[in-house]
Amino acid sequence: MLTMPRCSHSQNSSTPVELEMTNVTDWPRENKMSTNLLKTVELVFRRPNVSGELLAHALPDMNRVCDSKLLGVYFRHDFNFSKHVESVVAICNQRLFLSAQLKKQGLRVHALSSVYNAIVLNKTLYALSVCFSYLTEAHKDTLRRVLKRASRMGFTFHG
Fold first, then answer.
1. Which of the 8 DSSP states describes residue 106?
2. CA–CA gap between residue 58 and residue 28 (Å, rounded)
3. Most-buried pick from 25, 47, 75, 103 (CB within 10 A)?
4. Which residues, other chains included, contact 57 with Cβ-Cβ below 8 Å and sequence gap of 6+?
5. In 10 A of CB 84, how many CB atoms?
6. Is 108 helix (H, G, I), strand (E, B) or coil?
7. Which burial class, exposed, middle or buried, applies to 139 when counting CB atoms under 10 A from its CB (0-12, 13-18, 19+)?
8. 109-129, pLDDT tens digit by residue?
9. Which 8-state DSSP code applies to residue 8?
């Protein structure tokens, strides 16, 4: 039976961080999985104005980071998604260039639309529900510009 690791959700928890980390490392072992501690980092989510002095001490033998990529999404300690938006836009621009090359080679509108949906639109929409409420209007406009550019280039098919 697969069970989830036990973790405290309160910043005022009486459970020591070391015990929580033991729970996190024991869970995969109990479920016949492994944890690569060389790739494991600690990311503490907090309000931007919280002083680092108020944070709990870092776990031993673990790097505390300000941002990290998880399942293709860049998370930052203060929920700023600028790095994620920049990454998505860069990848989408590369994929739009690829689509333009396919168009020059004579790929038809229906096929171009399918390629666009698969490699550009899906990349733009992936995990958007996770970070949308944290995006600034500038972030949203940047993503909209990518989609408008694709439309102007004739990669979207309506009908």
1. T
2. 22
3. 75
4. 17
5. 23
6. coil
7. buried
8. 999 999 999 999 999 999 998
9. -
Distance CA 93, CA 108 (A): 20
Percent of the chain exceeding pLDDT 90 equals 51
Instruction: Give Cα 71 to chain centroid, integer Å.
Output: 6
Question: What Rg value do the Cα atoms of the chain yield, rounded?
Answer: 21
pLDDT at 11: 56
Q: Are 75 and 51 in contact (CB under 8 A)?
A: no
Which ranges in the chain belong to alpha helices (H)?
A: 17-30, 82-104, 109-116, 122-125, 128-131, 137-152
Q: Is 61 helix (H, G, I), strand (E, B) or coil?
A: coil
Higher pLDDT, 34 or 5: 34
pLDDT digits (tens, 9 = 90+) for 42-58: 888 877 676 666 666 66
Q: Classify 81 as helix, strand or coil.
A: coil
Q: How does residue 62 score in pLDDT terms, banded at 50, 70 and 90?
A: confident
Give Cα separations from 20 to 6, 34, 35, 69, 128 (angstroms): 7, 17, 15, 22, 30
Percentage of the chain with pLDDT > 70?
82
